[in-house]
Amino acid sequence: METTRKTWFGVITQCVLLTIVSAISRQNPQVKRNFTTFHAEQADWSFNHMVVDARSGSIYLGAINRIYKLSEDLKVLVSHQTGPDEDNPKCYPPRIVQPCNEPLAVTNNVNKMLLIDYKENRLIACGSLYQGICKLLRLSDLFKLAEPFHKKEHYLSGVNESGSVVGVIVPHNNLNDKLFIATSVDGKPEYFPTISSRKLSANSEDDGMFAYVFHDEFVASMIKIPSDTFTIIPDFDIYYIYGFSSGNYVYFLTLQPEMTFPPGSATKEQVYTSKLVRLCKEERAFNSYVEVPIGCEKNGVEYRLLQAAYLSKAGSILAKSLGIKPGDDVLFTIFSKGQKRGMKSLDETALCVFVLKEINNRIKERLQSCYKGEGTLDLAWLKVKDIHCSNALITIADDFCGLDMNAPLGVSEMVRGIPIFTEDNDRMTSVIAYVYKNHSLAFVGTKSGKLKKIRVDGPITGASQYEIIQVVESGPILRDMAFTKNEEQLFVMSENQLTRVPVESCGQYTSCSECLGSGDPHCGWCVLHNMCTRKERCERSHEPRRFASEMKQCVRLTVHPNNISVSQYNVLLVLEAYNVPELSAGVNCTFEDLSEMDGLVVGNQIRCVSPAEKEVPRIITENGDHHVVQLQLKSKETGMTFASTNFVFFNCSVHNSCLSCVESPYQCHWCKYRHVCTHDPETCSFQEGRVKMPEECPQLLQTEKILIPVEVVKPITLKAKNLPQPQSGQKGYECILNIQGNEQRVPALRFNSSSVQCQNTSYSYEGMEIDSLPVELTVVWNGDFSIDNPALSKVHLYKCGAKRPSCGLCLKANPDFECGWCSGEGKCTLKQHCLPLENPWLEISGTHAKCTNPRITQIIPVTGPREGGTRVTIRGENLGLEFSEIQNDVKVAEVKCTPIADEYIPAEQIVCEMGDAKPSQHAGFVDVCVGECRPQFMARSSLLYYFVTLSLSKLEPSQGPVSGGTQVTITGTNLSAGSSVKVMFGQQQCIFDRRTASEIFCNTTASTEGLEKVKVTVQIDKAKIPQELQFEYVEDPKILKIEPEWSIVSGNTPISVWGTNLDIIRNPRIRAKLGGKEHINNCTVLNSTEMMCQAPALAVSYNHLTDVTERPEEFGFILDNVQALLVLNRTNFTYYPDPVFESFSPTGILELKPGTPIILKGKNLIPPVAGGNMKLKYSVFIGDKPCTVTVSDVQLLCESPNLTGRHKVLARVGGMEFSPGMVYITPDSPLSLPAIVSIAAAGGLLIIFIVAVLIAYKRKSRESDLTLKRLQMQMDNLESRVALECKEAFAELQTDIHELTSDLDGAGIPFLDYRTYTMRVLFPGIEDHPVLRDLEVPGYRQERVEKGLKLFAQMINNKVFLLSFIRTLESQRSFSMRDRGNVASLIMTVLQSKLEYATDVLKQLLSDLIDKNLESKNHPKLLLRR
């Protein structure tokens, strides 16, 4: 029955898990590749560890509360429950050993170690419950063989994290195996050794299981962290990352804190150092303990924080570059940048390689020097005081295991690994490696769930990352990765999924170049099968040229000719193929889906025929003049295409101009008299009509700009060459002009082959806003035979009066336009249009071409200093056509103003520089004379120009950072005067920003003299303002602390910033940059040491929004021009996903009663911040009123205000807002009058009914009393009769007994033996009960069954179990009275030697039965009647 129950449990579990897996796979349609995946049963039952059985290929997966055995295709074979259970980490020993006074809580069991003991076919699974006890499970079905917990050696560690324990099994042939265990102690060194070696008994129930290999009162095979260490480093612990055995030693890779002096500092600071620990396998007292620091460096960057490691063998290529033998041990490691972050490492990581032999040589050198008495033991955490090495004359061999002197020992000099690959953005988290055909291949997991495939060739050539796969959609890949038994698949694990990934994906490459260019050593090109695969999977790959492993071995194919016309059919094509295998089976030639025919193989040539007429593709104008198809060779042996090349079908007839025809890359000819393009020149009408060269094409030549005034009849003469003479029946020439979308055709005359003229015609266009309009010109003959216009010559139509309202602008027009100013009509026209002819007409080339009546419309500025230097801009009309006309005749407020030639715009603008003004001069007009100062050539402004006095009053702020960038405000009067401003801070110029009449704004530059006070001077034009101001350069602000160091993607959460000199910054801002996009937010300075900022949003596109945390590429502050704070390297600022809310319902309306809380469901409501109590601040509004909010992980609870009706719900957090919908609060309305009347009527009827019932009850009671008295009288009579009968019967019995005893005087009273009597009482009617027989079980099961019965007997002796067992049976409906008797008899048989205990159980059962009957008021029932 038990076996059946286990089988059904396994089947049900498997079905449930498969359902979960399929459901989750359906929810992730964006997965690019479909990998076989196993997901966690529950979201919080995350995966911890994984091992693969190298013999069977089964996967053992350690998770929270579960151990799974999976098949290679990740199907659940069996599972074993490990938790949860009631526990408290402070209970030592745990509560299963002795009662604990600490409060107990249901606690998950985290799997901390998972090892396969191959020798005894069992799995060692250690958890976090009960101070870290371990279970021994049978590999085949995860049956629990033992769970030692009664000794302190059985408690490995109280740390509740999965990566805190590392174990290594050391097998022995004839003796028990050893288990080396290394663990973090979490501040409890008195309870747990940090490293130890334990016995691994063959008998799982052996009392010495997990006992120390050696232990007496002085030494033991373990090391504990001394309590003195915690006085120096209070949070000291050793974090074990990886463990392995090699040769005579066991190795552990660790990360541990230590105190060091930073460069240039006299005080120590805590850093983290990665170290390798080595122990002898056979050593008992740990005298061989040696640890050596490890790390690597690349381009000056130190990588010192170990993340993951894996021991592998060196392939021949890597071995050669490292100078070692193929197959030597190499250690692949992942390090992150720096030393100060501990377990919270940076994203910058490096993949480094260590040669294990070199590490052992370094340790050997240190041992030799120590035994010569050189240096100290150098193990600060174990030997708080420096202990000098002792001198001893011994030889240090390669397998030296230490003495009881000079041990344990530390190596001070770091062993540097070889960095072969670095990653700056996506932190590498795990690594595994193996050798494939001389290549060393590393597979690296990252924090974003990607798997990197890297070919490691050595320190010189480095490493080649040849493929990246997205394995996990969210979350990092954990350290445990493993290969399948045949090393063709890789198991990759994250917290919630286990995925099987092929080590190679050669099938994704569709061409030989892609395949061999991928860099994947697994991949080669199977030629005749036309696929990328492993060599062993390619048929007959050992034969020549059937498998390509180098790029130069790819098949090449050429064809001659490589193009033909679409009007050519069945053309013989000769193909030459290179690097092809023997083709005796034959080939087919295929033109994509057009046609397929047999090819004739002659040596390395294949002869094919082009498609027939009906198979040639149609080529139309929209698709160009050619069509490219793939000419493919298909093997008849495999039916696969193994080579292809481009073949072109071209169509000359799509060309409709001579130049495009003859410039085609194909054999096209132009027939100029037929105006067609053909591949066959024989089809042209005349020999002289065939054109092959562009120089022979009819075409227009480049001419000068063709200018045509509108409404003027004028011919257009064009130069050309090779113009054909129309033949008999052909039409002549025409010119076509496309004017504003309207086509205008004009007859044209061909003078000869090099000249053509469009006849006299006038042209026009709409609008006066266009002064010159370029118009496309086309020359055609014979109706639509166009002449090529390679120069794209155009006709320019123009209007003199367009955009030229004044005389000056008219005379400024292009002289080729021949425009002039018609004074009588006051407009710009051609001379012939200025009527009557006696009106004056001015032109630029005339002798008296000077416009009268100049006018000033604008002057800038209108104020300036008397000292001069102001540049005054004068705008107007007719302000001269040449600079010389106004050069000496400009005055501003009676002060000479010198015009500047470079800024003069004829007729429109004069810019002049003011001279000095006298103190008596205050204001005046601007006067300009054009050429001569006569009234018709003079202009005066309507506005006055004023001379003003400048003054300064103050400077704010008066100090700023030495790096500059401070925006300074200088206050004064008349500061907007003049045209230029120059502000000097000492010798440094302040960069001008803007100004008003009372303020000047400028930005300081960096001080060249450091911290100083400087004099501030202001100069406007040539006026130096006399007032003196001072500005002080002070030390740049510094940022010391940021809290919290996180926000959400949408930003706008408060951040407190502490630093120095923060109050000197007027406009502090905070910035974050991701993906090249920068977001900035503002800060508010509170005082010199504190400011409050709003976190900037992170530039994440909506297509990229995930639940993944992000770290910005750059994070810092914009504090004026302080460059050092733009990017903070000390911060680890993190962005968590935005909270996501769910809508109330599909309708978006939630109906509630007043006072009912509103629940907003969602996710990411509380960021998973490691350490810290900072939370997001939520604001929820019901309409305009806020409500009190209580936040949990998945919902917001809002105490609704006293409102009724329909209101919009709005949730705000950080920089985001979301409305889940509307809430409708229904009021508690009072009862209406009809309702009150109805209730009253119902109440009256109820009272009448109750009175009637009481009257009836009273009458019934009286009748019952009479009946009771009558029955009582009858009972009394019955009792008297029974008493009389009993008296008579007793007398008769006395007579019978006397007669019987007289008969038995000789023989005595007969009785049965105890066994017969007991069997008849307990098991009536059963002569041969199983309890009387020996155990009838086959021999191979007998020991197991006996063991099970013994365990069951022990459990029956437990009162709690026995009572629960009986109550469970009685609660079953199928448990009949006969079954009750049988079970009771069996239990009493077992307990007949413990009748006191049995009596106690029976008393408890009888008490329960009495209580039950009293509650249910039923008749008493028999309990276990026999």
TrEMBL record:
Its main location: membrane. SUPFAM superfamilies: E set domains, GTPase activation domain, GAP, Plexin repeat, Sema domain. Keywords: Acetylation, Cell membrane, Coiled coil, Disulfide bond, Glycoprotein, Membrane, Repeat, Signal, Transmembrane, Transmembrane helix. Residues 1261-1288 form a coiled coil. It is found in: Cell membrane. Coreceptor for SEMA3A. Necessary for signaling by class 3 semaphorins and subsequent remodeling of the cytoskeleton. Plays a role in axon guidance in the developing nervous system. Class 3 semaphorins bind to a complex composed of a neuropilin and a plexin. The plexin modulates the affinity of the complex for specific semaphorins, and its cytoplasmic domain is required for the activation of down-stream signaling events in the cytoplasm. Belongs to the plexin family. This is Plexin-A4 isoform X1. It comes from Pelobates cultripes.
